[in-house]
Amino acid sequence: MATGGEIVVRLDEVRRHYGETAALDGVSLEIRAGEAVAVMGPSGCGKSTLLNMIAGLDRPTSGTVTVHGEELSELDETGLALFRRRRIGMIFQFFNLLDDLSALDNVALAAQLTGTPATHARRRALQLLDELGLADRATMYPTVLSGGERQRVAVARALMNRPAVLLADEPTGALDSHSGEQVMDLLLDLHQIGQTLLLVTHDERLAERCVGRVVELADGRVTGERSLEGTA
Ligand SMILES: Nc1ncnc2c1ncn2[C@@H]1O[C@H](COP(=O)(O)OP(=O)(O)O)[C@@H](O)[C@H]1O
Ligand SMILES: [Mg+2]
Fold first, then answer.
1. Residue minimizing CA distance to atom 26 of ligand 1
2. Mean pLDDT of 103-119
3. CA 103 – CA 229 distance, rounded (Å)
4. H or E segment and range at residue 216
5. How much distance in Å is there from the Cα of 169 to the middle of ligand 2?
6. How confident is the model over 50-60, as pLDDT tens digits?
7. How many whole angstroms separate alpha carbon 24 and alpha carbon 53?
8. Is the shortest distance between the CB of 195 and ligand 1 below 6 Å?
């Protein structure tokens, strides 16, 4: 799907060393607009590090990362923070919601941090929660929500600023199979309406259902790629 789209994410020979450890050891990768790509590989092979590079949460030791036309090495810390808020949506295995804010405020905050007025942010947050089947959870706090509900709130938050790319790091890893499937379906829906998506998962079934391409990673290197075109 959408293989002719513009390039949204480009990594060129990205290395990230932590002391002696090469978490990424020369990764090049391109993701086009509307593509959904899964990164798979054993624990410790560099998947989260790869996502963190694209999100601008961490910087490469060498190589370049370009997202939505911006070369991240050219941004200072303030620029990188702005980039992250405006262009990146991220969901994590353990949700990373703020427990002292309601579901609605968790979602709205993402837009308020980019300067959107509170009333406008809350209106859009409510609309997103409604679309994700969570309207009746809006005023509740994360600690009273189920894992699946928390993850869907996290997806709403990630979508608030219409990110150029949605990064998902093992988003079903902490969920029971039913909740996992709901989140999986949500990611598939997002892909089908054109959201560019990069998914890290151990779950072959999740990958096959949601994405058009799988990138295999081992020891910080891309060891293979396969297309799942037509299955998603
Ligand atoms: N902040 C860090 N400091 C030191 N080592 C790290 C750090 N982050 C990741 N690593 C190491 O880099 C390698 C890749 O980690 P990671 O990207 O988390 O792998 P994965 O997500 O595939 O499990 C591992 O060996 C890990 O221990
Ligand atoms: Mg990881």
1. 44
2. 95
3. 35
4. strand 213-218
5. 7
6. 999 999 999 99
7. 10
8. no
What tokens does 162 get? 């219409």
Backbone angles phi, psi at 32, to 5 degrees: -95, 160
Beta bridge partners of 215: 39, 225
pTM, rounded to two decimals:
0.94
Phi, psi at 178, each rounded to 5°: -65, -50
Q: Which contacts (CB < 8 Å, 24+ apart) does range 201-209 have? A: 201/38, 201/39, 201/40, 201/168, 201/170, 201/171, 201/172, 201/173, 202/40, 202/170, 202/173, 203/172, 204/40, 206/38, 206/172, 206/180, 207/38, 207/40, 208/232, 209/184
Instruction: Locate the ligand 1 atom nearest the alpha carbon of residue 46 and give its number.
Output: 17
Give the atom of ligand 1 at the shortest distance from the alpha carbon of 43. 23
16 lines ligand 1 (CB under 6 A): no
Please give the domain boundaries of the chain with CATH numbers for all domains. 7-94+160-227 (3.40.50.300)
In the 8-state DSSP scheme, what is residue 104? Answer: H
Q: What's the gap in Å between 90 CA and the centre of ligand 2?
A: 13
